[in-house]
Amino acid sequence: MGKITHLLFDCDNTLVLSEELAFEACADLANEVLEKNGSSDRYTGPKLLVDFVGQNFRGMMVSLMKKYNFEIPQDELDTYVRREEDEVIKKLEAKAQPCVGVTEELEKLTKSGKYGMAVVSSSALRRVKASLKKVDQAKYFPADHIFSAATSLEKPTSKPDPAIYLHSLKVIGKKADECVAIEDSKSGTLSAVRAGIPVLGYVGSYEGKEMQANMENVLIENGAKVVMYHWSEFEDRLAEFEKA
Q1: What is the pLDDT of residue 242?
Q2: Apex 64 CA angle, 58 and 69, nearest 5
Q3: How far is Cα 102 from Cα 230, in angstroms, rounded to an integer?
Q4: pTM value?
């Protein structure tokens, strides 16, 4: 691979502990949609997190429509997406915390000046920026290098679609093999891999050693080159890409 010049960070549960908060807000809306469309099934936040981690709300709704065989008109879907975004941002602004150890690594990376850095997320841009602002990480990323599959593209999409990674490469002017993506989910890993970008997996945000070990296997099976359990491992794991 080429010389690594840029690091592309997922946001939710990679930089910021946001997924659990977000899925709490998503569950009520998802259940409203299911009830309206004749399904008796109901989701809790944790169940949604297990089934749809790494997808944005629009992608989740598309998956639910396929699973339960119903359709939502585009204007109605857009309304649900806006409602979800507002509710999630309220929760994030009140409760979001950084992933353990990541801020120290971002600080070291910024001081070294060795790599350019960007955020590449499925989530809406307002949500990503609210998360970064709450945990004081926005200062580490150029404002025009924060990318959202829900907002930055002409046609909104969600990981595992590689479109947002391909878009970010075009904007920052880099080739895939000049970058490393840091991802915590299957969908995020697939998105980067499908864009040709090598992936460093992170499982430290998952609860318990068993879940972390299971997710390590999932990320490796879907193309991650190496996986770290804590941000204190980041420098050593990144060095493995430099040597490749």
Answers
A1: 86
A2: 125
A3: 9
A4: 0.86
